[in-house]
Amino acid sequence: MDFLQNFDWMLLLRCFVVGGLICIIGQILLDKTKLTSARILVLFVTVGTILGGLGIYPYLVKFAGCGATVPLTGFGNTLAKGTIEAVKQSGLLGVFTGGLKASSAGIAAAVFFGYIASLISKPKMKKQ
Amino acid sequence: MNSPIDTKKDYQEYVNQKSPNSPIWRNCLNAFLIGGLICSIGQFIFSFCLYKGLDDTAAGAIVSIILIAITAILTGLNLFNKIGKIAGAGSFVPITGFANSIVSPAMEYKSEGYVMGVGAKMFTVAGPVLVYGISTSIIVGLIYLLFNAQAVLV
Description:
The complex is a heterodimer of chains A (128) and B (154). Helices cover 83% and strands 0% of the residues of chain A. By secondary structure, chain A is mainly alpha-helical. Chain A has one domain. The longest helix of chain A is centred in the last third of the chain and has 29 residues, at 92-120. With 154 residues, chain B is an all-alpha fold. Chain B has 2 domains: 23-121, no CATH class; 125-154. At the A-B interface, helix 2, helix 3, helix 5, helix 6 and helix 7 of A face helix 2, helix 3, helix 5, helix 6 and helix 8 of B.
């Protein structure tokens, strides 16, 4: 297949390693601190947004592709990137519109598929 | 009370003494492998979208949607929780964890109704993530505006 011949396997390797390392950070926080997974997710998004705003995270995205964008820090980076781009275009209004506009696909998909899954699923039997 | 485990600190030391050291290495290895694998699946989809002529933004959005859809299906089939038990942070740090945190309570609280059950409980974890993510991004935007006011407002 043409696609596989042109595929950047080194990028895939960098993606695997960086994505895996970000997950290891999460795992260490989970095992070695009292942070719950919800708090870790909040922490990762916040850190990703700050690193995105500082312009550091985009370098990681350039280096590792989806290894940097798929973890939740990448979600934060998308928020920051979208906000900054919108500010460039429409100033103060962009501060409020940019973040959600850029991350809308993920949020909308999660809400929609979550709702569908709840419609289809049968309620689990509660353990006595 | 004369028990040797009087304080929380003593108890913590006792637990540390008794619990084996190896699990954290195993957990980290699992998190690395499964987290890396999820990102690699994303990379495959991303590269394929670029190959089909889409731009970065559209490709990124499609990666999110597909990974979220897969997570929703796996959560619905009760498989995601099983993966999560092995993968730990490897499955909840990627966007799949965000999706799972919405889908899982949506299913679980169905019995409490579709509005205050499914609709409200969906955001138990995702709500805080969005609150802090969006608020931080607004602060980032304001600071950017402050430092580039002339460039933007001319």
